[in-house]
């Protein structure tokens, strides 16, 4: 009798190093690849036109690659817990194989699917693939989850890694064409400014990141020194590829091995991604609450105008505005720009962190609930290993340090194109004559700062200080 298995693709849209696909191939004579268009995700709390577009384009390429190898992709639409068990029962499969998901929604969904399949005597078998080490694989010496990144990274580095698997040459599927992949709408960002979707483009990005130049050094080797510079493209730009599983993190880490600070720091950043997945796995409440209970009572402000100015890149602080405009135009932000923009919302504007978190998730092609929540909680000083609350990024100094000539700001805030480097991060500090001379009158051509840095800093320190005091009192926090 022919044994049939389903491989259910989700955020693992690749053929290289795909343990679930290999397991299905080992267990069955016929492998049916399936993707479910999940309305809950497309319309839910974290919906994003940019991610929907990138996912669909990547899926088109995956469907071609699967069909080329003999297994046309089936597309289902609806709730996975309803549509998958129905198809699996229809095909008479023994097992459905999938890459293990770690985020709270994915875990709930998979439990519901497993229950639905069990009713028909079918198993849901999940395999690693999204992380080098599964979020529940590492623990402290006394068996607890890590709450400190440094200790997590040391354990993560020391744990043995599995070997990456090759892409299969042939996948024996069912005859016939695959299902059409529905149009999921246009992205809000400009596709010409977004990384090319699909596994092949992701692999080219990884190759380029690791390819030595004539002098023998690869871009990754310069990472430690230049990664925070906003005016240089000195990071890997692999985040959407890891988010959508176009690349295997095991392969990325394996291939980035080697001596030197660049490679060491790059691997350490890959570990941040896994640290935040680990933290959210153990504390799903973080999508609703601060990690630090003492800050649960932090009094944030209600100020829709300030939120709108921040989200639209009109705060009057050039580096913050450049960041938010880049985010909207491209669906991406470098890490330093994410920290500066997030800090401005949480500290300078004293708005609820969740508002910024949701704005980022709406735009980011790499939007990932664990990394995004971790980054926001860190910046808002409420998370694991928090940024100390009394440290409030000064956007002018951050701009001068990480965009010394103002090239980044001028690229995204064209109103400031003519402002000399000395004042491109604080145009209001020029007198009116100088402003007129460079074609940028503050308050007319470019907004005046919506808050004063020193006042906003004092307001944030007072609010954080009060919340900590209240949290420390018996019965508080
Ligand atoms: C407020 C805030 C929100 C963020 N939201 C997300 C998000 O939704 N999705 C996301 O992938 N990253 C997020 N990050 C982390 C980081 O900013 C991006 O991963 C990084 O900028 C992507 O660019 P890159 O691929 O060139 O990264 P590189 O600097 O080349 O790093 C390599 C890879 O390591 C991982 N990584 C690097 N830094 C971090 C970090 N601080 N936290 C977690 N993973 C990291 C990413 O997968 C990245 O692709 C957030 C950071 C902050 C401060």
Write the layout of secondary structure elements.
Layout: E1 4-9, H1 19-27, E2 30-37, H2 39-43, H3 49-69, E3 74-77, H4 80-91, E4 95-99, H5 104-118, E5 123-127, H6 149-158, H7 199-210, H8 223-226, H9 239-243, H10 249-255, H11 261-282, H12 304-312, H13 318-330, H14 335-348, H15 353-363, H16 369-379, H17 395-402, H18 407-412, H19 432-437, H20 453-472
Helix pairs in contact: 4-5, 6-11, 11-16, 13-14, 15-16
The structure holds flavin-adenine dinucleotide (FAD).
Flavin-adenine dinucleotide binds near residues 272, 339, 342, 364 and 379.
Task: Please explain how this structure is put together.
The structure is a single chain. The chain is mainly α and 477 residues long. It folds into three domains: 126 residues, Rossmann fold, CATH 3.40.50.620; 116 residues, Alpha Horseshoe (Serine Threonine Protein Phosphatase 5, Tetratricopeptide repeat); 177 residues, DNA Cyclobutane Dipyrimidine Photolyase, subunit A, domain 3 (Orthogonal Bundle), CATH 1.10.579.10. 46% of the residues lie in helices and 6% in strands. It has a five-stranded parallel beta sheet with strand order 3-2-1-4-5, sandwiched between helices. Strand 4, helix 5 and strand 5 form a beta-alpha-beta unit. Helix 4 runs parallel beside helix 5, helix 11 crosses helix 16 and helix 13 packs across helix 14. The radius of gyration is 24 Å and the shape is globular. The termini are far apart. The mean pLDDT is 96. The site of flavin-adenine dinucleotide has 28 residues, from helix 9, helix 11, helix 14 and helix 16.
């Amino acid at each position: 009798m022919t044994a049939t298995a389903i491989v259910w693709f989700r955020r693992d849209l690749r053929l290289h190093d795909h343990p679930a696909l290999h397991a299905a191939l080992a267990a069955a004579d016929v492998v049916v690849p399936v993707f479910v268009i999940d309305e809950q995700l497309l319309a839910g709390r974290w919906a994003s036109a940019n991610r929907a577009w990138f996912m669909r384009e990547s899926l088109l390429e995956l469907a071609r690659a699967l069909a080329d190898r003999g297994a046309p992709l089936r597309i289902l639409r609806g709730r996975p817990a309803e549509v998958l068990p129905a198809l699996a029962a229809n095909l008479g499969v023994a097992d459905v194989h999938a890459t293990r998901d770690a985020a709270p929604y994915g875990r709930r969904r998979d439990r519901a699917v497993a229950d639905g399949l069990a009713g028909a005597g079918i198993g849901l078998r999940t395999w690693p693939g999204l992380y080098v080490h599964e979020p529940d694989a590492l623990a402290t010496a006394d068996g607890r989850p890590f709450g400190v990144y440094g200790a997590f990274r040391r354990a993560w580095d020391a744990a043995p890694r599995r070997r990456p698997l090759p892409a299969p040459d042939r996948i024996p599927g069912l005859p016939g064409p695959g299902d059409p992949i529905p149009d999921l709408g246009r992205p809000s960002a400009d596709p010409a400014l977004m990384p090319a979707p699909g596994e092949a483009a992701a692999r080219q990005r990884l190759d380029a990141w690791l390819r030595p130049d004539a002098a023998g050094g690869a871009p990754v080797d310069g990472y430690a020194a230049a990664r925070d510079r906003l005016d240089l493209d000195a990071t890997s730009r692999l985040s959407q590829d890891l988010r959508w599983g176009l690349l295997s993190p095991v392969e990325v880490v394996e291939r980035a091995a080697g001596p030197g600070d660049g490679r060491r720091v790059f691997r350490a950043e890959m570990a941040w991604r896994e640290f935040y997945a680990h933290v959210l796995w153990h504390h799903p409440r973080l999508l609703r609450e601060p990690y630090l209970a003492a800050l649960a009572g932090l009094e944030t402000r209600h100020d829709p105008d300030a939120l709108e100015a921040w989200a639209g890149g009109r705060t009057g602080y050039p580096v913050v505005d450049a960041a938010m405009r880049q985010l909207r135009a491209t669906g991406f932000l470098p890490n330093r720009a994410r920290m500066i923009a997030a800090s401005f919302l949480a500290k300078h504007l004293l708005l609820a962190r969740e508002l910024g978190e949701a704005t980022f998730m709406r735009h980011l092609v790499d939007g990932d609930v664990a990394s995004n929540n971790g980054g926001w909680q860190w910046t808002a000083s409420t998370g694991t290993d928090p940024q100390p609350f009394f440290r409030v990024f000064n956007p002018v100094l951050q701009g001068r340090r990480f965009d010394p000539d103002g090239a980044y700001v001028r690229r995204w805030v064209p109103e400031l194109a003519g402002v000399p480097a000395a004042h491109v991060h604080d145009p209001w500090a020029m007198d009116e004559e100088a402003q007129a001379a460079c074609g940028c009158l503050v308050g007319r051509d470019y907004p005046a700062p919506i808050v004063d840095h020193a006042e906003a800093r004092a307001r944030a320190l007072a609010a954080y200080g009060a919340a900590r005091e209240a949290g420390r009192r018996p019965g508080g926090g």
